[in-house]
Amino acid sequence: KPIHILNGPNLNLLGTREPEVYGSMSLADIEQACTAHARDLGFSIVFRQSNHEGELIDWLHDANVNASAIVFNPGAYTHTSVALHDAVRAIEPPVIEVHLSQTAAREAFRHHSYIASAARGSITGLGLNSYLLGITAAAGCIETQ
Ligand code: DQA
After folding, report:
1. Contact between 84 and 61 (Cβ < 8 Å)
2. Which residue's CA is the nearest one to ligand 1's atom 13?
């Protein structure tokens, strides 16, 4: 089964959105790098982005059936969503939480993650490398399952 990479709100604007915080890569650039890295590890990926909390929940439920692991950047819902926390808890495949920016070094409202306590692990602050390391971690979880 593929690794599902799920992206939350505003991540469709990467490249033009606060490049000093999030870098100059577009989400399509990140997808391309993720596809190549996963392929090197012997995995295919499904890469998705939504600005809607309910759609992300539906995709976590879909991943429960169709993914071997999930790399998840919930965007700002990280800091607000009990529903996404519950969805991550409710599903079987390991979920690796990733963030481009170092949320602990930013505004206080970004310091708490509702996802971290439900996720297998979290990788934060490393830009594209957060995603690539997330894929490596996901592959490791799958192999030791
Ligand atoms: C983010 C961090 C969140 O605080 C923010 O709301 C985002 C992106 C990141 O990848 O750094 O939208 O998840």
Report:
1. no
2. 75
State pTM to two decimals.
0.97
CATH value of 3-143 in 3.10.450.50, 3.50.50.60, 3.40.50.9100, 3.20.20.70: 3.40.50.9100
Closest CA to 103 of 71, 130, 66: 130
Is 80 exceeded by the pLDDT of residue 101? yes
Query: Residues 44, 3, 105, CA angle at the centre, nearest 5°?
Result: 125
Catalytic residue at 77?
no
49 CB less than 6 Å from ligand 1?
no
Percent of the chain with pLDDT over 70: 99
Cβ 96 vs Cβ 69: under 8 Å: yes
Q: Is 22 among the catalytic positions?
A: yes
